[in-house]
Amino acid sequence: MKFFVDTAEIDEIKELHALGMVDGVTTNPSLIAKSGRDILEVTKEICDIVSGPVSAEVVALDAEGMLAEGRKLAKIADNIAVKVPLTWAGLQTCKTLSDEGTMVNVTLCFSANQALLAAKAGATFISPFIGRLDDINIDGLELIDDIRTIYDNYGFETQILAASIRSANHMSECAKIGADVCTAPPKVIKAMADHVLTDKGLAGFMADVKKAGITIL
């Protein structure tokens, strides 16, 4: 499973990238607004760091506006994936950009039907939002499973990019289901390394080391 990091903070991307934990990056206007920098400038800098797909989101709501913005964003770098919402206008934009050879990430997916439409429109990625479904007492992981089944049934090449990841458990469950990609905040990716028994075992080892006066250097 590929790891995309969901942030626009350059230092966080560099840290995870150095460890081989970044296969791509997802951004949106809200994340870039938090950085306080120009959207095109930040996106270009991220593309220079990461060789994998970097999702950059349009802000227009109509197909004509989305297409114009998408084409402008695609010129930033060859690894840009234009991010469009899962609306009818978004699907129209997806089809046109995909036909032009641009990667497209269709976002804000909350149903299997929406995911099916995105695949038919040629989406490179579909982004189902797990956490937001969980927030309204709908099992977000079940949606990932449903999309996996449909895509496998018909051989769609659209990659399932599980989004709105809230916990390390979401990451492992998506991996078991067969999501192609998970995009998560840096803190969630780092939390995957945590386990109470690891901490307990390390504390025991260190107590023995101190008692025995062991040194390496």
Q: Overview of this structure, please?
A:
This protein has a single domain (2-192), classed as Alpha-Beta Barrel (TIM Barrel). The chain has eleven helices and eight strands. α9 (168-177) links the parallel β7 and β8. The protein is globular. Helix content is 53%, strand content 17%. The chain starts with a strand and ends in a 5-residue tail after the last helix. It has helices at residues 10-18, 29-35, 39-49, 63-74, 88-99, 112-120, 130-135, 140-154, 168-177, 186-191, 196-212, and strands spanning 2-6, 24-26, 54-57, 80-85, 103-109, 125-128, 159-162, 181-184. The protein is of the alpha/beta class and 217 residues long. It has an eight-stranded parallel β-barrel with strand order 1-2-3-4-5-6-7-8, surrounded by six helices. α1 packs parallel to α3 (39-49), α4 packs parallel to α5 and α6 (112-120) runs parallel beside α8. The longest helix is centred in the C-terminal third of the chain and has 17 residues, at 196-212. It catalyses: D-sedoheptulose 7-phosphate + D-glyceraldehyde 3-phosphate = D-erythrose 4-phosphate + beta-D-fructose 6-phosphate. It holds the Pfam family TAL_FSA. Its EC number is 2.2.1.2. GO terms for molecular function: aldehyde-lyase activity; transaldolase activity. Pathway: Carbohydrate degradation; pentose phosphate pathway; D-glyceraldehyde 3-phosphate and beta-D-fructose 6-phosphate from D-ribose 5-phosphate and D-xylulose 5-phosphate (non-oxidative stage): step 2/3.
